[in-house]
């Protein structure tokens, strides 16, 4: 058998096998055709998992977009269950990220798709769904309480005005004199002719001795 005859026989067998395969799977639906001819192939079935997430993380929140503004903006999508913005415990200022929870998972999914990379006050919002298993148990702790930052000026004033013992006062004065001495040396090294005034209260008078007449 020549080369041409052998090649013709192999091609005939391949065509016959393709016809048999197509006949055996005639009733089965095919999803796509291969790129280089031949029988169609069936795609594996993939289950579409419905997300139950209702909590969203919102990052890059601009200044001035706080709880009231956030609630007024996002309630156009659906009913809001609760929301919070992370704040600095010392100053009470926004940390520019927060969380919002909707009543419906469908609404949360729409918000995540719509508002991600949304330009708001020159900030691109970063909106992502948080799976229910990743939501921290203390995420909403104290969310209904109005945060009132500490008055650090009042605290510092109270610390400075407290009554000190003699040893504490002596230690305070020593620190002031030490810093003043360094300051005088820096002024002198700079070539500035300046006479620094003495610190009032740095020298304490010796306590007077009281003599009692003995009868």
Automatic annotation (TrEMBL):
Record carries keyword Nucleus: yes
* Cross-referenced SUPFAM superfamilies: RNA-binding domain, RBD
- Pfam families the record matches: RRM_1 (PF00076)
Q: Which UniProt keywords apply?
A: Nucleus, RNA-binding
Domain RRM as annotated: residue spans:
54-132
Q: Does the keyword Nucleotide-binding apply?
A: no
| Molecular function terms from GO | RNA binding
One GO cellular component term of this record is: nucleolus
- Where is this gene product found? Nucleus, Nucleolus
Protein name in UniProt:
RRM domain-containing protein
**Source organism (scientific name):** Anisodus acutangulus
Lineage of this protein's species? Answer: Eukaryota, Viridiplantae, Streptophyta, Embryophyta, Tracheophyta
């Amino acid at each position: 058998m020549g080369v041409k005859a052998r090649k013709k026989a192999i091609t005939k067998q391949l065509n016959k096998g393709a016809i048999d395969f197509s006949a055996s799977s005639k009733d089965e639906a095919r999803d796509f055709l291969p790129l280089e001819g031949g029988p169609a192939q069936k795609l594996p079935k993939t289950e579409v998992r419905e997300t139950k997430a209702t909590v969203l993380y919102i990052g890059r929140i601009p200044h001035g977009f706080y709880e009231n503004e956030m609630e007024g903006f996002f309630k156009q999508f659906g009913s809001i269950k609760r929301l919070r913005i992370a704040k600095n415990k010392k100053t009470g200022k926004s940390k520019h990220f927060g969380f919002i929870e909707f009543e419906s998972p469908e609404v949360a999914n729409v918000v995540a798709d719509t508002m991600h990379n949304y330009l708001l006050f020159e900030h691109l919002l970063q909106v992502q769904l948080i799976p229910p298993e990743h939501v921290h148990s203390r995420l909403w702790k104290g969310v209904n309480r109005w945060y009132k930052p500490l008055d650090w000026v009042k605290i510092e004033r109270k610390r400075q005005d407290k009554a000190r013992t003699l040893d504490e006062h002596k230690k305070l004065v020593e620190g002031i004199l030490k810093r003043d001495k360094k300051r005088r040396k820096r002024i002198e090294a700079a070539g500035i002719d300046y006479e620094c005034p003495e610190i009032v209260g740095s020298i304490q008078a010796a306590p007077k001795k009281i003599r009692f007449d003995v009868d």
